[in-house]
Amino acid sequence: xxxxxxxxTADIIPPFSKEWQFVEQAARDTFNLYxxxxxxxxxxxxxxxxxxxxxxxxxxxTKEMYDFEDKGGRHIALRPEGTAGVVRAFVENKxxxxxxxxxxxxxYMGPMFRYERPQSGRxxxxxxxxxxxxxxxxxxxxxxxxxxxxxxxxxxxVTKVKVVINSLxxxxxxxxxxxxxxxxxxPHFGELSRDSQERLHKxxxxxxxxxxxxxxxxxxxxxxxxxxLTEDAxxxxxxxxxxxxxxxxxxxxxxxxxxxxxxxxxxxxxxxxNNSSLGHGDVxxxxxxxxxxxxxxxxxxECPGVGFGLGVERLLxxxxxxxxxxxxxxxxxxxxxGIGDDARSYTQKLVQLFRENGVKADQDYLERxxxxxxxxxxxxxxxxxxxxxxxEISNNSFKLKNxxxxxxxxxxxxxxESKIKEILG
Length: 425
Description:
It is built from 17 helices and 16 strands. By secondary structure, it is an alpha+beta fold. It has two domains: about 15-160 and about 255-325, BirA Bifunctional Protein, domain 2, CATH 3.30.930.10; about 330-425, Anticodon-binding domain (Rossmann fold). The longest helix has 17 residues, at about 15-35. One of its GO terms (molecular function) is histidine-tRNA ligase activity.
């Protein structure tokens, strides 16, 4: 029987895993600059966590969720996105308490699961990096979140991005707009897709997010939510636009953008690129926004939140060849070659000594002859090659050759630490 990975999943193998580590480290470095700390939550949660947060009419809940009943009869779901689990952890662990500095800033990274048609940069098991900030209702927190996303993209050399923003307003704004949107869509009921017909009175904003081409034509002339913002919501959005301008961040406004999750309000945003590796036209690689009611929805106190998520697979498709070559450069410092049977125990000790001094080192484990060992060192692109033979064993030393310059030195074991620091910097 031939065993294969499940459809819509991928093995992350060397040397490509280095590219993943590069992106993940870039994220950690960027988030650290903004004073974010890491949070890790379970890969599976109670189904209700996601149905309450994402909305029971969203595609995620109705079509894409991997959910099942476990042996204890509990309704469980593999996480389809990161925010809901982080909010649950925020509430359960009482991170809203007075002992925690506000805003509480956290980031996460890891696998997510959605049952959908696999395509380039979009798998059924995909990986997401995201951030969440709790405790501040300031529109400037929205702007910092967008700026941080752009900084991360710059760090992995993704430039020429397009920032798209919108406002979903506060509860009153959405209520007023909901009524206006229903009034606009009802005369077109018979022309809408079946999904949009079912959503029309449950959550009409979902119709704006429809992927059906006919639905998209109908909503082109729908009223804009920006026309129904309350005075407070208008002021919030005005501050966001002004602060983005202060930071020199260009943006466009798309009043039909609603995002695919029900928990958003006020500022929402998407960051897009136009790159053939992801397909034709503008493709979203990072998205997020504000969700001031979600903490209460999952059992916590009134507490505003804002965040974003980005897909790692899509980000990796955007890495340029120069960046990939730089990432794949060998970082092996020393390969130790043993000449003769008596050298084996000495090479083992020397390799371990290198490692104890912070030097990345390796040796032969396949009983190769010296010629084969030198070939391995060359294939691994080791910066230095250390050699031990009968003479070196007698002299309590080893030879160290710089593979770039060709210069070789005899190093006595008693001078090991000072000499290694001098040679390897």
